[in-house]
Amino acid sequence: MALQSGQTGHDPAINPGASQALPVLSVKNISKSFGGAKALRNVSFDVMPGEVHGLLGKNGSGKSTLVKILAGFHAPDDGGSLFFNGEKVSLPVRAGDARRLGMAFVHQNLGLVPSLTVLENLRVVQLTHGGRAFINWVEEEKAARHALERFGLDIDPHERVDRLSPVQRALLAIVRAFEDIEAARAVTGKPGLVLLDEPTPFLPASGVAQLFELVRSITKAGCSVIFISHDIDEVMDITDRITVLRDGIQSGELDRKDATHEKIVEMIVGQSISRGGHAKRDPESLKPFATFRNLAGRMLQPSDFHVGKGEILGLTGLIGSGYEEVPYLAFGAKPAASGTIAIGQNEPFEQVTLSPKAAIEKGFALLPGDRQGASGVDSLPIVDNMFLPDVGRFFRGGFLRNRAMIDEAHVLGTQFEVRPNDPYLKLSALSGGNAQKVLIARWMNRSPALLLLDEPTQGVDVGTRQQIFAALRKAAAEGMSIICASSEAEQLADICDRVLVFAKGRICHELTGDSLTKEGISEACYATAPTYHTTNRPMRAAQ
Ligand SMILES: Nc1ncnc2c1ncn2[C@@H]1O[C@H](COP(=O)(O)OP(=O)(O)OP(=O)(O)O)[C@@H](O)[C@H]1O
């Protein structure tokens, strides 16, 4: 049953007795403008106690803006109101009000301090707001251990956060958020709300399962969760109810039990989309473009593999299995422990002699997974981010042809559906998914001979994903070789001609043809017995 905007639609069967309950959060007619652009228009919805409420929408539809209004980071336009457990919240939300009321946020970057310990990160709010004259570290450690044990997390409180795995970091951020709302509940006696803004893109399936267990234990304790994600399967799995935003307008609500994958996609995109499955090519029919022998990194053990000319080769495995290092090693962005690379029939060269500059000269391009840290420059405009690697192309007679750059950026923005398509806008003003589109456009526009991708569609909405996949397939059909490292089995099954699955640093499965399905990839990730021996398998000679 699709509900109209503003209707509550809470199912008492999900949380018995909750039908009489006050909403934990009531958002009423919230709008937000940036200059002349409206990011949110009169958005209204309720979150009930014990509910996991999905907040979905295309890139730039206003999800993060809404979260930032709740956090007090943005002031909403006049006319809207917020209620938390029945109490009217003064707008803009004042510093400290969110915490006092019992709202805690896990933003896309998790908000942890990497150089501090788990204990320090976990107790930072209590330590900075307690007004204490001194810190009793014995008591603080006890409290931290208790919090970690409560959620079954086996993490040493004295470990530095930058030494934790991505899964442990995400779980720590959520435990901290829950501890914060529990601290507020001890004072107010009322349930709190944790807002999770895309916490899953980097997590392997086992990590997502652990995270969902944690979310369920939060709601069992009577608190609520707002869950933002572009992964429809995850949304179907964890949410009770879903609110969809489209271009800043609430386009409807849906009870999870009435939702199907197709229905949700249609509400997000505004139309049904075909998954556009592609005819996989026989990798044997493609001449090798780049051949890697004995390539080893920090986790990657000496491995032999190649990518064919015009092939889309997927690399996957559990996090830490070594596949995620390959794009960086192949680009010379990380030094290998060993290994050579041969292009076509050319003599192989040692990987350690390859710098990113030399890789670019050879026609390689790398889209790193860390968009904010290693990929884009937030403080520069879109146009500069698009043309950073080849700005030299726009110089004529010693002058930079600014107009030509702007025009080309505009064309690229249209092609990759960057919204808003304003080349002068800073990258930081774009939504996460739109920023990723700018960076993909940057590298695709250079038509590299070898495109190296690490989690290319993280944060990109379902509609745009299909467009990016189509662009990658077209480029491959025209001869571009693509290596795509990703933890998303569905994405790999959609675009790749061949997928190598890694375990414990070695290639253990090679999937092609009919075995190259989402299920086949997931199964191979969890199967331990290697069926593919990297050192014994005959390599095809470059032709
Ligand atoms: N600081 C800002 N200045 C100008 N425009 C902004 C700013 N922050 C967000 N916007 C714009 O507001 C709109 C909504 O962005 P928002 O980040 O809320 O989208 P989103 O739904 O979270 O997208 P994504 O799924 O890509 O994260 C976008 O058009 C974005 O460009």
Structure description:
- This is Sugar ABC transporter ATP-binding protein.
- It comes from Rhizobium alvei.
- Keywords: ATP-binding, Membrane, Nucleotide-binding, Repeat, Sugar transport, Transport.
- Belongs to the ABC transporter superfamily.
- Helix 5 packs parallel to helix 6 (about 205-220) and helix 16 packs across helix 17.
- The longest helix has 23 residues, at about 165-190.
- A hairpin with a 2-residue loop joins strand 2 (about 25-35) and strand 3.
- The chain has helices at about 65-70, 95-100, 120-130, 135-150, 165-190, 205-220, 230-240, 260-270, 325-330, 355-360, 370-375, 380-385, 400-415, 430-445, 460-475, 490-495, 520-525; strands at about 1-5, 25-35, 35-45, 50-55, 80-85, 85-90, 105, 195, 225-230, 240-245, 250-255, 290-295, 305-310, 310-315, 340-345, 350, 365, 395, 400, 450-455, 480-485, 500-505, 505-510.
- It has three domains: about 1-270, Rossmann fold; about 275-365 and about 450-543, P-loop containing nucleotide triphosphate hydrolases (Rossmann fold); about 375-445, no CATH class.
- It contains 17 helices and 23 strands.
- By secondary structure, it is of the alpha/beta class.
- Adenosine-5'-triphosphate binds near residues 39 and 431.
